[in-house]
Specification:
With about 240 residues, this protein is an alpha/beta fold. About 35% of the residues lie in helices and about 15% in strands. Helix 3 (about 80-85) links the parallel strand 2 (about 70-75) and strand 3 (about 95). The termini are far apart.
């Protein structure tokens, strides 16, 4: 992110994207990156200052091309939040993918408010519908309780709520199971891909959907609605 050639290429890509989509009626905002601070395929984890300075330049470019939509970032939880606060003043909304378990998002909202005084959004929150030593019904129930708790915390911290008052909302991740994430697309993989605050202590990334595809025999056409789907249908009615 401090390489001039790379910066030039990325900004040109952003320019083309904005010019192509800025007049689409369903654009809500521009969202920069996706968990860049974790350093997957980039050096933002090693050079966070360079990353956030560059992200700020990208935000300024976007605003010069499209003054009608805010610019947000999709960071990794609150890692390097202090660097964001110091070096990205032109990004309007702090967004982050956050998976914090049944304790919902904890101090996330107050941390963002204290360091940036900007609105915040959860760009990913979710829980798998599979768990070791759970029946399918128990796992779906646990998923539903986890997601409802997360959504309730977002609502509580929105304007006029009981919390920090800076929550804009959140993106439920996700609608439909993705069978490729365990690297064996032909099976609905049940192995935990990483340790985290989930019902059985593991993230089951192939089971994050509030909608499943059954045993796969009718994929990709079957849509098997889970308890979480029906619950959010009522919450968001």
């Amino acid at each position: 992110y401090d390489n001039p050639e790379h910066q030039k290429n990325m900004l040109e890509s952003i320019r083309k994207m904005v010019m192509e989509y800025k007049d689409e009626p369903f654009v809500l905002m521009w969202l920069l990156g996706n968990e860049n601070v974790y350093g997957v395929a980039c050096n933002a984890d090693k050079k966070p200052e360079s990353f956030f300075k560059f992200a700020n330049e990208a935000a300024k470019l976007i605003k010069s091309l499209d003054p009608d939509h805010p610019v947000a970032i999709a960071s990794g939880d609150v890692l390097y939040l202090d660097r964001y606060a110091a070096y990205a003043p032109d990004i309007d909304v702090f967004g982050a993918n956050a998976y914090r378990g049944d304790q919902v998002f904890g101090s996330f909202w107050s941390d963002v408010k204290r360091l940036t005084d900007k609105p915040a959004i959860i760009t990913e929150y979710g829980c798998g519908a599979y768990a070791y030593c759970y029946t399918r019904e128990q796992a779906e129930e646990a998923q539903m309780e986890y997601l409802v708790g997360s959504w309730g915390d977002i609502v509580d911290n929105a304007a006029f709520g009981e919390g920090a008052g800076n929550a804009l909302g959140g993106f439920l991740f996700e609608y439909l199971d993705e069978w490729w994430k365990g690297y064996e697309p032909g099976i609905h993989d049940t192995k935990g891909l990483w340790i985290g605050p989930f019902p059985d202590g593991f993230m089951h990334e192939e089971w994050l959907g509030v909608v499943g595809q059954g045993d796969g025999k009718l994929s990709p056409f079957l849509r098997q609605l889970r308890k979480s789907y029906y619950t959010f249908e009522k919450l968001w009615k």
